[in-house]
Amino acid sequence: MKYVIGHKKPDTDSICSAIAYAELKNIEGDNAKPVRCGPINPETEFVLDKFNVDIPQEIEDLSNKKVILVDHNEYSQAAGGLKKAELKEVVDHHRIGGLVTSNPIFFHCEPVGSTATIVADIYLNKNKEIPQKTAGILLSAILSDTVVHRSPTNTEKDTEIAKKLSEICGVDIEEYGKEMLKEKSKLGEKEPRDIILGDFKEYEFGEKLVGVGQVETVVPNEVLEQKNQLLQEMKKITTQENYNTLILLVTDLLEKDTEALITGETQNFEKAFQKEIKNNSATLKGVLSRKKQVIPPLEDTMA
Ligand code: MN
Ligand code: MN
Question: Tens digit of pLDDT for each residue in 43-80?
């Protein structure tokens, strides 16, 4: 049995790509099972519910298991026990971040907007029919990661594949995309800590550990009116987890701007973005993507 799994703090791409890729493996006669590490976020729950797809089981430890990684390839973002697992494949769209294997593996990475784009492309290249439900969740993952094709991470391939998927599942991209953005923006009863860590990634830049959370929303003021509470909690987390720097990106999906809240060491951030930080925050005009617009300049300055 091969376990197909996305990153910690799973997003819609991690969950849906794992489900769809495990399904393809099974169609091909392999034995695969999608799993997740961490709770499902509300957007993903909405998507799985809409297309009537089961939530994958949670797994704590990958030790001694055969594993296929989707949507990540760094130990710091993976479920526990990966170093003791038998890694079989990687399907991803992120930077290559230090995996080491003892045997040759399939390593499929492309600089596209979502892992779901690659998974759908693999189906198409193998001439396998994409089931309607699967097309629905793959489309959702593309729209989630690319902010309905608005993100600078979106490529022509994402747009093309999404169109094919929308024809298979019979969903209008713009209409459904807006529905998803609204779903993503719902804060509900979230505590500051959950807002900070809800969509969160850790990076090692040289010796420095950096945490970067992101809230993508169509109503950024609902988040920023809690700035003081958020900063207070961020300072706590910075100390507890020994972060060199902790950043929370509050991204306005409609205006395509990001307000960054920063705690810990701030000089490198100022250098990376040529911005003065005032009251622990800075406005990053035109910034939507953590991966493409925030991490590279930070890494260049810090590593
Ligand atoms: Mn992801
Ligand atoms: Mn992704």
Answer: 999 999 999 999 999 999 999 999 999 999 999 999 99
CA 237–ligand 2 middle distance (angstroms): 25
Q: Which ligand is nearest to the CA of 199?
A: 1
Is residue 248 classed as helix, strand or coil in its secondary structure?
A: strand
- Residue 202 Cα to ligand 1 middle (Å): 13
- Which CATH architecture best describes the domain 2-183? Alpha-Beta Complex (3.90)
Task: Give me the residue spans of the domains in the chain.
Answer: 2-183, 192-302
Calculate how far, in angstroms, residue 116's C-alpha sits from the geometric centre of ligand 2: 7
CA of residue 278 to ligand 1 center, whole Å: 30
What's the CA-to-centroid distance between 44 and ligand 2, angstroms?
Answer: 13
| Superfamily the domain 192-302 falls into | DHHA2 domain (3.10.310.20)
Nearest listed ligand to the Cα of residue 11: 1
- 10 Å Cβ neighbour count for 300? 12
Task: Please enumerate in sequence order all residues whose Cβ is within 8 A of that of 105, keeping only pairs 6 or more positions apart, or say none.
Answer: 87, 88, 89, 90
